[in-house]
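#struct-pred

JT: dropping the chains for the assembly here, can someone run the whole complex?
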Amino acid sequence: MKPLEKENIFDIQKIRSDFPILKRKVNGYPLVYLDNAASSQKPQVVIDAIVDYYSNYNANIHRGVHALSQEATDAYERSRNKIQKHLNAAKPYEIIFTSGTTHSINLVANGFTTLLKTGDEIIVSALEHHSNIVPWQMLCERTGAVLKVIPMNETGELVLEAYEKMLSDKTKLVFCNHISNALGTINPINQIIQKAHEAGAAVLIDGAQACAHLKPDVQVLDVDFYVASAHKMCGPTGVGLLYGKEKWLRKLPPYQGGGEMIAEVTFEKTTYADLPHKFEAGTPNICGDIVFGTAIDYLNQIGFDKIAAYENSLLETATRKLLEIEGLRIYGTSKQKTSVISFNLEGIHPYDVGTILDQLGIAVRTGHHCTQPIMDYYKIPGTVRASFSFYNTFEEIDRLVEAVKKAKQMLQ
Amino acid sequence: MSIKEIQAEIVDEFSLFDDWMQRYEYMIALGKSLPLIEEQYKIDRNLIKGCQSKVWVHAEMKDGKVVFTADSDAIITKGIIAILLRTLSNQSPKDVLEADMHYIDEIGLKEHLSPTRANGLVSMIKQLKLYALAFETQKNNMP
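RK: done, full complex below.
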């Protein structure tokens, strides 16, 4: 397909008009928002759904006998069903609402404390976000398990041969992100999951980056745990999901004690509620969890096939145009990538580039992106990361390229 | 010159610029002209925490004045350091401690003053003042 055709995948102006924030000016320039891998912007339907909840049916859920509580409970459970359907989970109660990916990971890591023993092995990938490294290190400290790391190569891909050699009957858990937040690499999670299962290990996939760009099928993947955050998927902040296979969720102990997660409480003994409530102690982020469903509906209405095709086109164009700038190096050059470009200008600190881009109204992320091991691999302090979403345009790529040229000229 | 006079001078210089680009170009030039810190002081112990770029600061007393030297791996940060050191280096510890730093606001770098900003200008000012406090305390404790 030629780029021109791809540009017509959908009506970009119509899509942009769904996002009120895109009309903003920053430092006198129309905003170019290229920090989507950190957090996405929100369409009007999502903003309206938040207002609708608080205006019309705000009440605590699962407890009240009154109408509002019933309406809120229904909406909350409908949202769970939407997520179940979206991920093709077998059962609605395999979806746990959390406060985000980090919470989801910690819930699982904490649960495994009682299931691991000294000498067991846990494998993580070299491409992980700190949030998918630190909880496992803490788990190792608690249990005496050993953390092993799947190495990466120069293109930003995992070395699967090394991974296969690491697997043994000692391996109990494998953790890997679906897509690297720092480099955009799409990891071969099919193989990673399959090999782990052959060794008898469980697998958690961090889908925080992936879920904005593609629609995972947890049953086809046969993954044990899959986690993601709403705020990267056009949904509200402070909301996330944990998918877990029923057998695993039954095996794991509750993460937090409180209301909602109990069946019966006496001072002698408490019995826990059934799934999913066992993991949803206290009053959840009711509004956020409901609106997460609205955001998923919005994305599905556009269609993930269209989103992927359009974003790939943005990625190809931006990569080609940026590489025309002399002295610009892109980190993460796998053929399997989503629309994330991490780069540096030779001899120039990423922080300086980011500061000039901000002055020109362009929002990018600079720094180590919570992935210090990747930065250490490339021996750099950080990168400038431009991450594209389906509401970005080819004109915005030109603005970025011109701004990077300007930054280079000023900073050299 | 007193800190106040130097600050007024800097505010004057920056008032000549019409737009952000000229201001930043000037800061970048200042960054490039910042006298380098001696290599022996570019150590982790002298790093200021809270900056996205690395910032090293060394302080010593010479003839009753605090002399700061500093460096950074980012050039705009170096420009900001150059402005700070021009104001606060070669001043008495007491004057450094009492210096009002709001001139940063007046020279159009307000966005850098936010305590949540990753460049850590606030951390830098705090660290410079902490050095001054240490020297001032030392002086007062001497017999």
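JT: nice. The two ends of chain B are 30 Å apart (CA to CA). Chain B has a mean pLDDT of 86.
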